[in-house]
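Researcher: Next sequence.
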Amino acid sequence: MKQLQKVLPNTYQRAMSFLTPDELANLEELRLRLGRQPTMVLNGEEQAFPLGQAVSKEDVEHILQLATDYSLYQAATLKDGFLTLPGGHRIGICGTAVLKDGSVTALKHFSSLNLRVARERVGIALPILEKLGRLSSSIFIVGPPGAGKTTLLRDLILQTSNRQKQRISVVDERGELAASVNGIMQFDLGMYTDILTGSPKSIGIAMVLRTMNPQWIAIDEITTPNDIQAILQASYCGVHFLATAHAFNLEDLKSRPLYRALLAAGIFQTILVLDGTKHYTIERMEPFD
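Model: Next structure:
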């Protein structure tokens, strides 16, 4: 939390001191909307943040200045709309999109920030590994936003690396899994784990496959057809995957065209379904037409 608090204005830092230890432990997001009172998300529910003033343009710019080492230009040119802080925390940014040839190339007139808290919960994957034994097939973690997919994936990487001594390459596109700073990971992902930060998943998967000889490749949030194609190609080389995706349940996952090719090919035969309350079920998936 200290790394997140460093980018906050002093008034916000003082307001956080009014949160109870339990609230701090369960804080998931701090949301700032220009001209409105800031809010926070605790255990999936959004509520008022204990600061009796509206979010100002200066508040938003203060946070972005510190998050970008005083380069608002860096924030403005983030076409994907987010920044990753040391510690793996992520700042989502909304404003006015600047378009070129039909694509977003920049943002201006920043209007909303979403500061998402990254957490390390060592050991939460152990009950899963006790049920599954030594991992030998790819695992797909699915659930709604905020269900804890990234946190579970992080510990699953750590435990698989350290306890099962399997070689894992992490393609950490947004820098959230390892939160590497100058090549040093802030979150422990295990002794036998290698990290590639900042590369698009579709490119990074091919890179680590060629250079690191992984037994496993871990990626967070499969979102594009290029991701799917890269996974399919890598699977032909015998590598397994630990991955996440947004879906509310198994039927929702199967109904989404983007994921049907993966499921039909039998890439992921073990599905961990999170229900939004940090509980999970283990589903088995056989290849289908």
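Model: Residues 126-284 form a domain with the Rossmann fold fold (CATH 3.40.50.300). The radius of gyration is 20 Å.
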